[in-house]
Design a protein that fits this description.
The protein is α/β, with parallel strands linked by helices. The protein is built from 10 helices and 9 strands. Strands 1, 2, 3, 4, 5, 6, 7, 8 and 9 form a 9-stranded mixed beta sheet that branches. It is globular, with a radius of gyration of 18 Å.
Length: 252
């Protein structure tokens, strides 16, 4: 293993024992083991810390990091030594043993500053088919036509020095805000394969508060509207349609 690892994998935990095993397993099985694993723990009281302690490999634990998920993710970025940073939360896991190897190859082939792959959603124990990946452009993303799934994002660490990290004032759309800042200076290289399984459950913040999440997303996209005003206008139409549907679905 190199003194400076290729990857820094950041996992935020808080009483995550029920799902963390899948996360750890998926990393143990990676054919590329050139990574450090940074755990950012918010004060777990269950078996989470014992599971982390039993996990072999190059790892560090940042204890008692409070102030929300954005602050926790930023703490992981700040602690990272690797050339490439990824966030793999304790609800999620890599879909295959060659994920990190494939991502490293895509970085080498493309020379890109960040790489984006696809995810599958695990809902009620069943894997949903992955959505087709659309070609990326800043305008397509600003309009809401292209997606960037956070669990399948890998970023060269020096890019954070250029654009900053997650906005800690945001609760739902901190990833969209960061992707818009990243894409404004360097478009991602796309990797059209499922890299990560995202576990959806009732406790997921954006799932439990869909109206509030949409409202914050709108405010974030409006921040960046000047870079692609026509694309933002297209997004506004989609936003109004989605909000009407969400409000109609709310119980009386």
């Amino acid at each position: 293993m190199h003194p400076t690892p290729e990857f820094s994998i950041v996992t935020c935990t808080w009483n995550s024992a029920a799902t963390l095993g899948d996360t750890l397993d998926s990393l143990r099985r990676q054919t590329c083991q050139d990574f450090e694993h940074i755990f950012v723990d918010g004060g777990s009281q269950d078996a989470t810390l014992a599971m982390i302690d039993a996990c072999p490999g190059d790892k560090r634990v940042l204890h008692g990091v409070g102030g929300g998920i954005s602050r926790a993710m930023n703490a992981g970025i700040e602690a990272a030594r690797g050339a490439i940073v990824a966030h793999l939360h304790a609800d999620d896991y890599y879909a295959a043993p060659d994920v990190l190897a494939q991502v490293a190859r895509r970085f080498d082939e493309s020379g890109a500053a960040w790489v984006v792959g696809n995810i599958q959603v695990l809902r009620d124990g069943q894997l949903a088919p992955p959505h087709a990946m659309r070609p990326f452009s800043y305008r397509a993303y600003a309009a809401g036509h292209a997606t960037i799934p956070h669990p399948a994002v890998f970023v060269r660490r020096e890019l954070f020095a250029r654009v900053g990290t997650f906005d800690t004032s945001l609760r739902y759309a901190m990833d969209i805000d960061l992707w818009l800042r990243l894409a404004a200076v360097a478009p991602p290289a796309m990797l059209d394969r499922t890299l990560t399984v995202f576990r959806e459950h009732p406790g997921s913040v954006s799932s439990a508060n869909k109206v509030e999440a949409r409202q914050e997303e709108f405010a974030v996209r409006r921040r960046h509207a000047r870079r692609a005003p026509l694309a933002f206008a297209v997004y506004c139409l989609r936003y109004l349609k989605h909000m009407r549907a969400l409000r109609a679905a709310r119980p009386a």
